[in-house]
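Dear Dr. V.,

Thank you for agreeing to look over these. As mentioned in my earlier message, I'm a first-year student in the group and I'm still getting used to reading structure tokens, so any feedback on how I've presented them would be very welcome. I ran two proteins. I've put each sequence directly above its structure. The first is here:
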Amino acid sequence: MKYVPIPIAMLEVGRPLPIDIWSDTGQLLLKRGQPVVSEQHRNKLHSFNACSTPGDALAWQRAYERMVHEMLRDGVDVQTIAKAPMPDRIREMDYVVGTPLSGGWPDLQDVLRGILYQGGLAINPMPRLGGIARTVQKLVASDPDDALFRLFQMLSDNSLGYCSTHALLCATISQITAERLGLDASLRANLLDAALTMNIGMAREQDSLSRQGSPPTEWQRQRIHEHPELSARTLQEFGVDDADTLDLVRWHHDPQHAEALPRNSLARRILATVDAFVAKMAARKGRAPLPPIAAAKSIFAGAQGEAATVGAALATTTGFYPPGTFVLLSNGDTAVVAQRGVRANTPWVIPVMDKNSMPIIQYTCRDTQDPAWGLVTPLNFQNVRIAVTADKVVRARSRLPKNP
């Protein structure tokens, strides 16, 4: 029997455990329903390398992810979530056999957030991260506009937790940009893995900062500075030994560092640029998000060489008005961008609210190249008070010509 290490530091003293606990040699240490009775008892579990069976480990991890999702949904602050122990109940549904990633982008976000929050204590992380990466590749290849649409919409909802949305959006944009720039498939895979995990060293702090109205504290600034190395170290503890992935994670804030691998220069630049672009477009309690054009200009203005090359590719990849963002049309309608257009500044949009702030029920794609539907300016998510139904957007897009 192969056993999986458990997050001993996340076990609450006195709380019954929902699974059997074993040593790494197969000795039963605790029966289901028994608690950790003291700190000394916890230390003893450490000395025996306390583990569980793979099936129990996966079910317990799912229970944890569901618990975090429910706490975020209920408005529990991130600091409280960060201190939450492993749950003492596992539902039968958590043991259902089959892929845990069948629910699309929201499911990916839930699973990834659980891994990022647990960091080095994550249960069986590598197979799960591999499953996330494969699913991202599949969804992006199948419909990149839908991927961008759903993730930019998720970025506007701070209640979902920022860290995993940021990671998935960076992974998606990096993949599309890297393909446009001709990076080989192997390096694109490294880039995807790095984008998903580059902030695992400060995932909880990343969510705290997104809801914090004041500037970062000195400790938070230090964490921001240190997190690339912490993230690389965490991945090494997971068993990641791929030099290229670790290089991308370690230097994603400093892509030209002297110790970075020369062969990854362009990939590092892509990751650093996309990371900054998504961060500037994300809402913070203390500041409004930048519109896509403003975010791009703040990063690319005056760029030369490799930085300019990546900036141009990213602008073409996402468009100046990425799917999922909102715009004001010349007729006064508010529209959501549904699909990238022929040019970066002429996307296909769906009007969702008229000039009198009345919702538009029938979703119809409009070409902003047509003066009747001309685009005036981007709108911040915070200024648009209407919910958009993603499935209706998909149906509206399906009525477009194959190559609009």
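The second protein is here, in the same arrangement:
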Amino acid sequence: MTEAVSLYDGVAPGSEDWRHEEVCSVGSPLGEDKMVRNVVRPTLTPVLPEPSMATGTGVLVCPGGGYFALAIDHEGMDVAGWLAERGLAAFVLKYRLSETPASEEEMASLMAGAAAAAEGAGPRDLETQPFLAELMQRMDDFAPIPLADGRAAMEIIRSRSDEWGVDPSRVGAVGFSAGGRLVLDLSLQAQAELRPAFVGPIYAVNPGTEVPADAPPAFVAAAADDPLFEHSVRAHAAWRQARRPVEAHLYSRGGHGFGLHKQGLPSDGWIEQFHAWMASEGF
């Protein structure tokens, strides 16, 4: 792993008046892994393979967390390490987030409210819950900020491809939940030269944008007991409608946010299947 690279010289455009301080904690209402919040200065952390193993493929890794947190371990650094061990250059994106309370107590109270709102919600009615419907709207409103960071990250990876040992035409992206939304936004809205060569939206929040005729190949994975499962079903259907290459792994169990956590379920194997799919697509 090399040192994190700042995405911008100076203050990130669009956040000139942000004054909140980044918070990193281990153990939180989102789980026992490291969680990062209140990101103001976005960075990219390369996790590179041994040169003798390098395949020339690069993967931008985008953790999730509702655009208010980042599950930086099991949806970020752990994923990057797994890929690097197999010869893929991985780049963990720490993108900007909407502001949350600085104190862990206030944040815990906020997350308890979210958990209470989601309790008993099924796969088809989660977004009708007022609290979570508001969260989805906030994500829509905030989405241009992480998208700008994703574009900057893709530009940096391709501009420094010789240094990092990657082929600029073989740089893809994988993202989880809100990070999956970012990956979808990159593939559908970014300028053509900044689009990933392939994408892996994993239990992604789907913005519902129409898939263009030149969209990159996609690998979709989600579990049916995830309240946001239908987002992944829609993403798969949209790629098929556009006649673009897409593979879907829709597990019966696994919940939301499984990342690299092992649960003793078939969904544990998603990353091996993602790796095999990349190979089958020539990446």
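From my reading of the second output: Helices lie at 73-84, 104-118, 130-142, 144-159, 161-164, 178-189, 229-241, 270-280. Residues 5-280 form a domain with the Rossmann fold fold (CATH 3.40.50.1820). Does that match how you would interpret it?

Kind regards,
E.
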